[in-house]
């Protein structure tokens, strides 16, 4: 039987054998007390021994530095029923205990029955794989006090009674380190770890479970207390997870799962709040906050932390302490309530994400309710909310601000705004951030009551009914909200206004921004800005607050959507290449002004009405389409200096057009009016197409508007618009219209006085040939090129027609001023301006149809009988002819268009067969081919409506043609060529044509079939032997038919289509020449031919809905003179000159040379 060593015996042994260690020899021990005052005792208890003690003091006590108790596999049972203060192991005054692979158990319900207790500097207890359990009240598993140290590795700590702590370190330099330890307690008011008054606990790989009702499962209390956790997992079934009560918490890895706050940083009275440092950890709360910075000066530094909050109230992190701070990198919050709730502190988030899933669960919430600030900054953070009323980021009350950089906010739900800033001097700013909302009434940004919002390179987009891009509202008078939208920021809506303002004043500054409003996903009909009143209810009384002053200042920005003022006064300015596309509508409220600087543009897409339009840039009416037709802009006053782009379906007076209306005000400055033809075909006006209308006493100045060179079909030399043959001028008053209104008119009506000192300059051909492969540049006035921005001054009419070859000299009167003569415009009242291109097109047609037409004598040189008639009769012929001509005096039926043509043709052919007909007759048949080139010069005299001035506009035509054909000729007498003859031809020709003018150049092709039948009878009417016996008179008749087809020619603002082009020409005439024989073999004889020509065709060109024609050469007299004959044995030569004069003062001259070889 083993005997227990009593404390007295152990003390005697220690005193008498100081140099020898004491070795336990019994397996059952009572209280062990090693307190050698000399500190030289080390006791090793027998492995497997049991130490049982139920009295006062610890089951094992070791004190005095140098004394140590070592036990492996030792079972320690301390205390008993009703026992108090019976720890399992206690080290004090520097004593040490080392335990392993055993257990420490305190039993009974006594107080302070700690499992391990190290107290005093240098005191230490080490327990490896030791099971520790306590049953008493306030009985901690391991307790380091007043500088004591406890080290635990493996094993477990189990608590059974209230007020107990698994590990407790209290006092300066007190330390507990634990590794791979399990801590459990089900008692109320118990904790897994408690650090107080400068103590320190360091846990690695510890699992702690606190299941009883408790305030906090772990705590670090006091400014110098530290709790360090590494890869430690804590579960708090009731209460908070960890309190940093002015103490410091350092956590790396692991997790905290708590019913209440996962971590709270609170404070000891008068001491700043706790400091929390957590990395690579997961925090969860089912009924509180992930982290609660609940004391002034409390702070949390987080790295790669995930927080989950499942209760519908609370937040991922709450900053309620004054000057509390959150610094988080890679923080991920998933919350049923708020993400970050900041009331008095400062939060900085870098990266990470915040996801909220409940209603009214804001991602970021800053509301200053004490202290000086409540600020949140994010950098690269993603925020998502998915509940009704859940705002992505909300700042309210002065001193509250949220700053987002390179972050993303996405909300989904009714009234789930992306950003919200409310209250005096509250601020929201975003840089490089994307905000998206999906849900009805889910505004991208809501701002109210003296707030300031700054969005830089930020995108707002909304989807949902009444999901405004930005909603700025004010609930009192004389209150202003301020917005800055800069540096590439964008606002896009799908089904609501981009900018909604309600009540009060609003100041929006846009710099390099883009705002696009849509309705039903379509830009047409979207509202860019809507100003309206707001109803405010207070104390049961509802008051309507009207919108006040609304200022939209855009620079370098692009805006799409209408501006609607139902309340308030709106001013809009566009600067530095800004573009606004939309209508401006005053309805209940007033749009006071729109300013467009020299670099900016307003695209008018709907009827608009407002106060003052200051147009130094471009106001462009959007082209009519299926959604919106032509538009009207109504303003009180208009200040010009820029460009007004208007769409007009150019035709007659009834043409549809965009319109500017001056209502009761006036105009100033000069505006270039650019007219874009909207499918009009041109036409003759009576009064004109009204573009500017004055009502209610409105007026315009005489130089308020001028045509812009960018207009469709602008003719620089005349300053007119050429559309399908009609030239329109912009005229104040039109043709007997309202004096202050402005019209486009294609009809000349005299107005003003004639300047007798300014005669019309002569009309000259610009000269030169046109290369069909190199189109001519636009034709300019002979006086020099015309700058399209500075058209030449009009040429005044001296009072009658001017001979273009002989301009009249200036009229002077030595007696004094000359009274202006009465003006009769060419063509009479209502003179129509017709474009010269129509003349060039018809000039090409006439040149083409006449190019290869000829008579028998043009092709065949007359026979002169020789001394050897038989030789002269025999053989075949080859022939060639060249002809040049100039025709002038061709005029259009409409307007005053003169056409001159110059042509050159070369043809050659040869007989391919001949046959005798009777005794003397002969028949020939042959083939021929030809090449021709013609130039047409068309000059139109354009009268400038509203004045007595005119200008000459020019166009040029060019024709290059090739022909092939056959002919057949029969003579009754082959030798003398007296008697009857008949000739017929059939030809086919193709043409490459071109029209050039200052409008541009167009190429097109044409082809023609030409057939001719001719007959004549040569007689010698004078008696033989008389002086005129050798004279031959040859009456002739010829009928020619031409069928001509041409492609359309398209120039800017003009499409020319071939109209009537078939014609029948008849010729009746006679040829007179002497008949004689040549003995020498070379005889030339003269000839004279006179013809009467009649043409049945009227060449026409269809341009748009109009048809234009020339005054045809219906009847004309032609005279030809020349000589023909044989210049060698087989070579014949003929030459002639010709002249033609016909109706309408049409004239023509020409010359031809023919060479024939017979063999």
Q: What attributes does this structure have?
A:
1159 residues; mainly beta; Lipocalin; 27-stranded parallel sheet; 4 helices; disordered N terminus
Folded structure, characterized:
The protein is mainly β. Among the domains are: 1-214; 613-748, no CATH class; 832-1158, Beta Barrel (Lipocalin), CATH 2.40.128. 3% of the residues lie in helices and 53% in strands. The longest helix is centred in the C-terminal third of the chain and has 16 residues, at 836-851. This is Autotransporter outer membrane beta-barrel domain-containing protein. Pfam families: AC_1. Residues 749-829 are annotated as: Disordered.
Give the arrangement of secondary structure elements.
Blueprint: H1 7-16, E1 22-23, E2 28-29, E3 32-34, E4 42-45, E5 50-53, E6 60-63, E7 68-72, E8 75-78, E9 89-92, E10 96-100, E11 103-106, E12 116-119, E13 124-128, E14 131-134, E15 142-145, E16 149-153, E17 156-159, E18 165-170, E19 175-179, E20 182-185, E21 191-196, E22 200-204, E23 207-210, E24 216-221, E25 226-230, E26 233-236, E27 240-245, E28 248-252, E29 255-258, E30 263-266, E31 275-279, E32 282-285, E33 291-293, E34 299-303, E35 306-309, E36 315-319, E37 325-329, E38 332-335, E39 338-342, E40 346-350, E41 353-356, E42 364-367, E43 374-379, E44 382-385, E45 393-396, E46 400-405, E47 408-412, E48 419-422, E49 427-431, E50 434-438, E51 445-448, E52 452-456, E53 459-463, E54 470-473, E55 480-486, E56 490-493, E57 499-502, E58 504-511, E59 514-516, E60 527-532, E61 534-538, E62 541-545, E63 547-555, E64 558-560, E65 562-565, E66 569-575, E67 579-581, E68 584-586, E69 590-596, E70 601-604, E71 608-615, E72 618-621, E73 632-639, E74 643-648, E75 659-663, E76 667-668, E77 671-677, E78 689-695, E79 705-707, ...
Parallel strand pairs: 1-4, 2-5, 3-6, 4-7, 5-8, 6-9, 7-10, 8-11, 9-12, 10-13, 11-14, 12-15, 13-16, 14-17, 15-18, 16-19, 17-20, 18-21, 19-22, 20-23, 21-24, 22-25, 23-26, 24-27, 25-28, 26-29, 27-30, 28-31, 29-32, 30-33, 31-34, 32-35, 33-36, 34-37, 35-38, 36-39, 37-40, 38-41, 39-42, 40-43, ...
Antiparallel strand pairs: 61-62, 78-83, 80-81, 81-82, 82-83, 84-86, 85-90, 87-88, 87-102, 88-89, 89-90, 90-91, 91-92, 92-93, 93-96, 94-95, 95-98, 96-97, 97-100, 98-99, 100-101, 101-102
């Amino acid at each position: 039987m083993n005997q227990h060593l009593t404390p007295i015996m152990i003390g005697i042994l220690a005193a008498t054998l100081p140099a020898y260690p004491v070795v336990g020899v019994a397996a059952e021990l009572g209280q062990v007390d090693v307190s050698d005052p000399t500190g030289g005792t080390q006791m090793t208890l027998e492995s497997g021994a049991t130490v049982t003690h139920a009295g006062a003091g610890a089951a094992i006590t070791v004190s005095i530095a140098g004394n140590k108790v070592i036990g492996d596999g030792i079972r320690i049972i301390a205390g008993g029923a009703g026992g108090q203060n019976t720890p399992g192991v206690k080290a004090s005054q520097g004593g040490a205990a080392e335990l392993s692979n055993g257990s420490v158990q305190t039993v009974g319900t006594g107080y302070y029955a700690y499992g391990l207790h190290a107290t005093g500097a240098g005191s230490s207890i080490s327990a490896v794989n030791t099971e520790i359990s306590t049953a008493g009240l306030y009985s901690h598993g391991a307790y380091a006090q007043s500088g004591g140290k406890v080290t635990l590795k493996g094993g477990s700590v189990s608590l059974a009674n209230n007020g107990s702590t698994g590990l407790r370190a209290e006092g300066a330099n007190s330390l507990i380190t634990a590794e791979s330890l399990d801590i459990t307690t089900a008692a109320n008011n118990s904790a897994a770890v408690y650090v107080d008054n400068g103590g320190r606990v360091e846990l690695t790989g510890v699992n702690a479970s606190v299941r009883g009702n408790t305030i906090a499962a772990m705590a670090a209390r006091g400014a110098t207390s530290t709790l360090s956790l590494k890869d430690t997992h804590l579960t708090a079934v009731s209460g908070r997870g960890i309190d940093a009560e002015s103490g410091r918490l350092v956590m790396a890895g692991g997790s905290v799962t708590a019913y209440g706050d996962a971590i709270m940083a609170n404070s000891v009275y008068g001491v700043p709040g706790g400091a929390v440092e957590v990395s690579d950890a997961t925090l969860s709360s089912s009924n509180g906050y992930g982290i609660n910075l609940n004391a002034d000066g409390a702070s949390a530094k987080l790295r790669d932390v995930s927080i989950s909050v499942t209760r519908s109230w609370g937040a991922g992190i709450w900053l309620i302490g004054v000057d509390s701070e959150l610094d988080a990198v890679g923080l991920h919050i998933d919350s049923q309530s708020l993400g970050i709730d900041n009331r008095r502190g400062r939060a900085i988030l870098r990266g990470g994400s915040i996801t909220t899933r409940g209603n009214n669960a804001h991602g970021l919430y800053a509301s200053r309710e004490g202290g000086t600030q409540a600020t949140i900054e994010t950098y690269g953070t993603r925020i998502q909310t998915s509940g009704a009323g859940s705002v992505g980021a909300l700042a309210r009350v002065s001193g509250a601000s949220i700053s987002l950089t390179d972050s993303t906010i996405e909300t989904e739900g009714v009234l789930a705004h992306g950003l919200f800033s409310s209250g005096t001097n509250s601020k929201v700013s975003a840089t490089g951030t994307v905000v998206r909302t999906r849900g009805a009434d889910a505004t991208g940004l809501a701002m109210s009551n003296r707030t300031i919002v700054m969005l830089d390179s930020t995108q707002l987009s909304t989807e949902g009914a009444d999901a405004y891009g930005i909603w700025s509202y004010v609930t009192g008078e004389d209150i202003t909200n301020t917005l800055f939208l800069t540096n590439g920021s964008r606002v896009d809506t799908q089904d609501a206004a981009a900018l909604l303002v309600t009540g009060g004043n609003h100041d929006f500054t846009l710099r390099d921004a883009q705002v696009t409003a849509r309705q039903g996903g379509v830009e047409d009909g979207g509202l860019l800005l809507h100003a309206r009143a707001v109803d405010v209810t207070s104390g049961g009384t509802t008051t309507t607050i009207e919108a006040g002053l609304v200022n939209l200042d855009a620079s370098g920005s692009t805006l799409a959507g209408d501006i609607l003022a139902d309340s308030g006064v709106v001013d809009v300015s566009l600067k530095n290449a800004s573009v606004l596309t939309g209508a401006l509508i005053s309805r209940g409220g007033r749009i006071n002004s729109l300013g467009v600087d020299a670099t900016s543009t307003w695209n008018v897409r709907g009827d608009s009405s407002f106060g003052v339009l200051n147009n130094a840039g471009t106001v462009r009416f959007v082209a009519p389409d299926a959604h919106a037709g032509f538009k009207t802009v109504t303003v009180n006053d208009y200040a010009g200096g820029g460009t007004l782009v208007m769409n007009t379906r150019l035709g007659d007076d009834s043409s549809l057009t965009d319109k500017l209306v001056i209502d009761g005000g006036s105009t100033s400055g000069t505006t270039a009016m650019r007219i874009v033809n909207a499918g009009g075909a041109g036409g003759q006006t009576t009064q004109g197409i009204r573009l500017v209308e004055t009502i209610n006493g409105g007026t315009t100045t005489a130089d308020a508007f001028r045509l812009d060179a960018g207009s469709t079909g602008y003719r620089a030399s005349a300053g007119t618009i050429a559309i399908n043959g009609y030239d329109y001028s912009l005229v104040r008053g039109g043709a007997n219209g309202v004096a202050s209104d402005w019209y486009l008119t294609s009809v000349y009506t005299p107005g003003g006085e004639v300047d007798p000192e300014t005669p019309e300059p002569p009309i000259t051909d610009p000269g030169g040939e046109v290369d069909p492969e190199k189109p001519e540049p636009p034709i300019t006035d002979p006086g020099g090129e015309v700058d399209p921005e500075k058209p030449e001054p009009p040429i005044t009419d001296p009072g009658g027609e001017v001979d273009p070859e002989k301009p009249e000299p200036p009229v002077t009167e030595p007696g004094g001023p000359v009274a202006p003569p009465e003006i009769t415009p060419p063509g009479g009242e209502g003179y129509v301006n017709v474009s010269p291109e129509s003349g060039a097109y018809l000039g090409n047609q006439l040149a083409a149809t006449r190019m290869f037409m000829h008579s028998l004598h043009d092709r065949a040189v007359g026979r002169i009988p020789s001394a050897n008639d038989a030789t002269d009769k025999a053989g075949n012929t080859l022939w060639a002819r060249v002809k040049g001509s100039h025709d002038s005096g061709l005029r259009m039926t409409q307007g005053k268009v003169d056409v001159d043509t110059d042509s050159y043709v070369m043809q050659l052919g040869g007989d391919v067969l001949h046959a005798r007909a009777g005794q003397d007759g002969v028949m020939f048949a042959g083939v021929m081919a030809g090449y021709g080139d013609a130039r047409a010069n068309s000059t139109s005299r354009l009268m400038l409506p509203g004045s007595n001035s005119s200008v000459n506009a020019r166009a040029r035509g060019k024709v290059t043609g090739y022909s092939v054909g056959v002919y057949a000729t029969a003579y009754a007498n082959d030798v003398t060529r007296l008697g009857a003859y008949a000739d017929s031809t059939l030809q086919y020709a193709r043409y490459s044509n071109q029209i050039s003018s200052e409008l541009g150049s167009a190429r097109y092709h044409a082809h023609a079939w030409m057939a001719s039948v001719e007959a004549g009878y040569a007689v010698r009417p004078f008696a033989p032997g008389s002086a005129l016996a050798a004279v031959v008179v040859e009456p002739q008749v010829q009928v020619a038919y031409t069928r001509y087809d041409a492609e359309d020619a398209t120039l800017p603002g003009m499409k020319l289509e071939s109209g009537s082009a078939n014609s029948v020409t008849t010729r009746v005439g006679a040829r007179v020449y002497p008949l004689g024989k040549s003995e020498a073999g070379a005889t030339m004889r003269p000839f004279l031919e006179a013809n009467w020509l009649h043409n049945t065709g009227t060449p026409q060109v269809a341009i748009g809905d109009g048809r234009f024609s020339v005054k045809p050469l219906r009847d004309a007299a032609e005279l030809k003179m020349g000589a023909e004959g044989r210049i060698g044995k087989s070579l014949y030569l003929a030459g002639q000159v010709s002249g033609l004069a016909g109706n309408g003062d049409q004239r023509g001259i020409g010359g031809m040379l023919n060479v024939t070889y017979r063999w």
